[in-house]
Design a protein that fits this description.
Keywords: Kinase, Membrane, Transferase, Transmembrane, Transmembrane helix. This is Signal transduction histidine kinase. GO terms for molecular function: kinase activity. It comes from Microbacterium invictum. The chain has 179 residues and is mainly α. It is elongated. It has one domain. Helix 1 packs antiparallel against helix 2, helix 2 crosses helix 3 and helix 3 packs antiparallel against helix 4.
């Protein structure tokens, strides 16, 4: 049984619980792919394995903590049809998630937070960028049904073959015979 679609003319970007969960899971998987891949390249050959050890549990916790704020953001934007507004908002949320999660990790792991090396450390840059991109890609996956072009539905006429047989190819008019 599928959920009823909540979208209306007043709320064109409203979403179902299933769409939200699909987007959240997709954002998490995109983050893991991006984060682990980049660390794998930067710190080859062991970077990907080490990154996975930390990225999986920390990002899973981030999804658990930030799913509700993401849901609230989506609800707040449900009346906005412009995709650019959603992309910018979810990218900004991704930056916030990346900064808070990375800062929390650093405080837990080292006992201190070194703000002065914010842009110099690959840890900050990679995690925050991956989080921002993943959040947008997750939103896009969740909003896939909303973003699908509205093609006019084609009605299939069960009598089409019989009606076409009545057309006289000689005169091109329906129901008239040229004889």
């Amino acid at each position: 049984m599928s959920e009823p679609l909540p979208r209306t003319a007043a709320e064109p970007m409203a979403f179902t619980q299933t769409e939200f969960l699909r987007g959240a899971l997709s954002a998490w998987l995109w983050f893991l792919l991006l984060d682990i891949s980049v660390y794998g390249i930067i710190f080859f050959p062991m970077g990907a394995a080490v990154a996975a050890m930390f990225a999986v549990p920390w990002s899973a916790a981030a999804v658990a903590v930030f799913a509700f704020p993401a849901w609230l953001l989506g609800r707040a934007l449900r009346r906005r049809a412009r995709v650019a507004v959603h992309v910018a908002a979810f990218a900004a949320l991704g930056v916030v998630v990346g900064v808070i999660t990375t800062a929390t990790y650093l405080v837990v792991a080292t006992g201190r937070l070194e703000i002065d090396s914010f842009f110099g450390s690959p840890l900050w840059v990679v995690n925050v960028a991956a989080s921002a991109f993943a959040m947008v890609l997750g939103w896009r996956r969740g909003a896939r049904a909303v973003l699908r072009p509205r093609a006019p539905s084609i009605r299939r006429d069960a009598d089409a073959a019989a009606e076409d047989a009545l057309v006289d190819p000689a005169c091109g008019e329906r129901g008239r015979s040229a004889h």
